[in-house]
Amino acid sequence: MKKLVVLRGNSGSGKTTIAKELQKKFGHNTMLIPQDVIRRDILKVKDGENSLAIPLMKELLIYGSSHNSIVILEGIMYSDWYKPLFELAVQLYGTGIYAYYFDISFEETLRRHQTKPNCHSFGEKEMRRWWREKDFSDVLDEVSVTDGEDMESIVTNIYNTILNG
Q1: How far apart are CA 67 and CA 50, in angstroms?
Q2: What letter does residue 142 receive in the DSSP assignment?
Q3: Against a cut of 0.85, is the pTM above it?
């Protein structure tokens, strides 16, 4: 059965790191759809309610559902702006969706951001402007990932849940 892992949350919460580790752990035939790469690197577009990244992400979800055992969709993806993407995900994957919301405190996301290679690209001021408290989706049934969980535990828990799901 095809499976979709959705990792969402504020900037600096650890989504990208977890997504890359999960892709490594699942191995071959695991597709990673990173919102920032699509939006910033491939398309060079801003995020927003009608971001031009959303149609491409939809196409990639469709492709992944047809060609990959596991697809990982990762990014900030504000719940209201990306609702059409999440609705498509439900149509494509049904009960095969494993959604996680990184419900990490602002202080912890700021601390994590300082460990990233691009930490000088933006800082606390921008992160506060982008911040959304508890932006849970009303489409996806998301599990909370919180401050107290380390990367290895998060990866192991998600991996085991999907293998046993």
Answers
A1: 27
A2: E
A3: yes
> Which residues, in sequence order, are CB contacts of 129 under 8 Å at separation 6+?
none
Q: Is there a contact between 68 and 2 (Cβ–Cβ < 8 Å)?
A: yes
From residue 165, give the alpha-carbon distance in Å to each of 98, 111, 139, 146. 9, 33, 20, 22
Confidence of residue 60 (pLDDT cuts 50, 70, 90): very high
CB distance 90 to 139 below 8 Å = yes
Q: Which residue has the tokens 């580790």?
A: 21
Rounded Cα–Cα distance for residues 64 and 57 (Å): 10
pLDDT per position as a tens digit, 17-43:
999 999 999 999 999 999 999 999 999
d(CA 143, CA 12): 18
Considering only the C-alpha atoms of the chain, give the largest distance between any 2 of them, rounded to a whole number of Å: 43
Quick check: helix, strand or coil at residue 40?
helix
User: How far apart (Å, rounded) are the C-alpha atoms in residues 67 and 128?
Assistant: 38
Helices of type H across the chain: 15-26, 35-36, 53-67, 83-93, 106-113, 124-130, 151-164
